[in-house]
Please model this.
Amino acid sequence: MIHRQTSFETRLVRAGWEPHLQEGYINPPVYRSSTVLYSDVASMERSQADPLRRDLPTYGRFGTPTSRAFELALTELEGGYAAVVTCSGLAAITTALMAFVKAGDHILVSDSVYTSSRRFCDSLAAFGIETEYYDPRVAGGIADLLRPNTRLVYLESPGSTTFEVQDVPAITSVCRDRGVVTIVDNTWATPVFCRPLELGADVVVHSATKYLTGHADSILGAIVCTEDTYGPVRSAAIRLGQTAGADDVYMGLRGIRTLGVRLRQHHQQALELARWLQEQDEVSQVLYPALPGDPGHELWRRDFSGAAGLFSIVLNPWYGKAEVDAMLERLRLFGLGHSWGGYESLIVPADPSAHRLPGSWQEPGIVLRVHVGLEDVEDLKRDLAAGLRQLSQDCCSELAAV
Ligand SMILES: Cc1ncc(COP(=O)(O)O)c(C=O)c1O
Model:
């Protein structure tokens, strides 16, 4: 473990580093393994004695030196006790939730969570677990929503698509007093910009598919725990058969080494583009907490040290689906594709009202989610400017034809 006093930049480079265990090579080998051979029965029995299968090698699904290095690195960066790698970000979320719930429980989930997280929470009804969605801006008001059977509160900050920043310390302090577990999706910020465990959370989940891996070339997830939450989470991961491919884990570890420089560049470029978009006639709103004036700006300034390259824009309500689709198809640098957190710029239509509590999203204009990649920001502006100009022209010619 690198000393806590070391600067975060140094920790990004060195976290989980164990060259002395690998003949001096700085990166761990990629262990593609299932079977572990023992020299005798006693050592086989010793390795199986730990129900959490933590330290001694037993079987590939329980981890290898490659996954151990990734888990160690992320644990150090998030300031946790231990981490569990999973095959995807969604698997990290579902495993973390399953670690704590049982039939008869009630869970509170932010209304702004990633759609697939929401679908999983909805599916828990089949197992007798009730999910209630709360306003992401609830802050300390979460106290009024807790019931005697509330087991956990799930947060994602900022929220998917609409980017509301949650008051994590206010929520976690209420929950801690009432013995309610808090789980935070920290995919957007990564530990470079926010460390929810330091804000009182019990568990942090990541889609490492995004910035941690950073090159759009793997699917990976991770759960970082405190000492109290590690046992239930690791045990759930074992029962659910969680594991991750050796190459994906390696990509995650490799991505961490350059996470700081990449994220700073995403931040700078996204902020510049977001400010520019605010001035465009076609755009009615930019949803990005790094912008002064955004409803989450003050909380973001308090709890985050930077902003990722992902935000949304709301177009003026008079642009229809056909014209917006045509604009998206004409963009040259912004690819029409899901996911985010890679080096490339992406844009997708994202309708928040399709998966929110009825009435909670009232904006009439079409919403586009934008990921600002590492291309030259002036080129990106030119690409969007051409698309927006075309959008206006298409709209004008349609009006003229009426
Ligand atoms: C905020 C957030 N969390 C989790 C996930 C799920 O990640 P994965 O695709 O790695 O399962 C996503 C995917 O887009 C996401 O945006």
User: Anything to note?
Assistant: Residues 103 and 126 are 9 Å apart (CA to CA). The chain has a mean pLDDT of 96.
